[in-house]
């Protein structure tokens, strides 16, 4: 895959800005590209997340949620470095592995109002197995994965024009009917459930991992991965990737508080949130190493490249980390790094394929 070869000329369709949270303490070694963070203090992870992590360690993985393998690098690499994609196409219904929702099912009522966003299909799938047909998902748009959700027996209620409107409606209905509201990312169990992806990476990798690139929406996935990986190996960089026009996490880290965007771009709709979670922001502020911005053209190029290499079609949000890894490695002229990219979704809207082709 040419887009992932570290030693090639800059492509004109890439636009990259590297954002590093200003509150981090770094030890700079040989160059600006070789940055190693000091180990995070135990106090940097909240008690709630720590308790959830301990519970997750003790609780066996459900049989319905097998680990997704790291894909062998093959021609994705330029020796001596390599890129290891974590692909959703190996998982059920094109989503990435198990969800933290599995760790919440013991406290849920028989009916749940759930705003699923960062990985909507896996949330609904896992909940459907646990609780039967009494699942309600709030979301406003008509994406193809919702057909699979409905086939699982979930009732899909589409409301509002944005995720925030859908969440407000779900919270209101849950309060009125005495139900449990399940947030898609800002809950300790959800965060640590997402962190099982980090656990899989560290256990499956056959080489020393230098960096993990993670798509960022509300922040649950990257917060969970960072919470686990930084406790195991603080030298592994955790780098978030956001679209240029949906960069709520980077702006929040820059200002030291959560920032709500006036509007967000909808191309990578799986990460298009106006404001990140409170707990996810705090964890990202303490643990992650930076955020990369990429353009829509860069995302489309990564979708094309993954298809040409693996015959796997990623949705825009799923290709986000891939685009960010390339942009980062070009920016810092990285040629010998072992990189993991989280390809978080393969639920591509068929009608969007033409647009992706034109922009790639």
From TrEMBL:
Q: Which cofactor does it need?
A: pyridoxal 5'-phosphate
The residue ranges flagged as biased composition, category Low complexity, are 62-76
- Any Pfam family the entry gives: PALP
Question: According to its UniProt record, in which pathway does this protein act?
Answer: Amino-acid biosynthesis; L-isoleucine biosynthesis; 2-oxobutanoate from L-threonine: step 1/1
Q: Which domain of life is it from?
A: Eukaryota
Decide whether keyword Transit peptide is in the record. no
Q: Which reaction does it catalyse?
A: L-threonine = 2-oxobutanoate + NH4(+)
Q: Name one GO biological process term.
A: L-serine catabolic process
| Domain spans labelled Tryptophan synthase beta chain-like PALP | 149-345
Looking at the keywords, is Repeat present? yes
Drop me one GO molecular function for this one. threonine deaminase activity
For this protein, the Enzyme Commission number is 4.3.1.19
What keywords sit in the KW lines?
Amino-acid biosynthesis, Branched-chain amino acid biosynthesis, Isoleucine biosynthesis, Lyase, Pyridoxal phosphate, Repeat
Check the record and name the PANTHER family matching this protein.
THREONINE DEHYDRATASE, MITOCHONDRIAL, THREONINE DEHYDRATASE, MITOCHONDRIAL-RELATED
Spell out the family assignment given in the record's similarity comment: Belongs to the serine/threonine dehydratase family.
The entry's protein name is threonine ammonia-lyase
Native species: Cuscuta campestris
